[in-house]
What we know:
Layout: E1 7-11, E2 17-22, H1 23-29, E3 33-41, E4 47-52, E5 63-64, E6 67-69, H2 77-89, E7 96-106, E8 112-123, E9 135-141, H3 143-152, H4 159-167
Parallel strand pairs: 3-8
Antiparallel strand pairs: 1-2, 3-4, 3-6, 4-5, 4-9, 7-8
Amino acid sequence: MALHNDFVILVDENDNAKGTMEKMEAHQKGLLHRAFSVLLFNDKKEWLLQQRALDKYHCGGLWTNTCCSHPFPDEDILHAAKRRLKEEMGIEGELDKAFDFIYKASFKNGLTEHEFDHVFIGQFSDTPNINTQEVADWKYISLSDLKEDLQLHPEKYTPWFKIIIDKM
């Protein structure tokens, strides 16, 4: 039997829940589901990025926002974002909703991310305590350096993170 966190919440274009589905099945079928992305900034206004673990089911080794995931069925989205931030980066703190957006990205392994992504922001100026099963590395980077690197090496970043950068 699948674990509780192996399911995603299927939603419509207005983020109304339509049911749940096993996570990999939803990604194989490219169905719209609820997700969140967390972006933390330090006191120098640098962005805290993570490099996804190399063995992630997609985008392994790519750089992205501080953390991202899917809420459990019946879990509040803000609670899910705080829970996952603690699990991936060892960070606890306050988060504020920034915006949300829908995106769809297909990957070479046949999976498709089609997400209604809730973006949260917060502040953190310390050293994260990363979960190495989820995160390969981390760094703080200024917006100007990030934009320059995105221009030179867009392939090093996740598709949803590029959208978040444009919207910020």
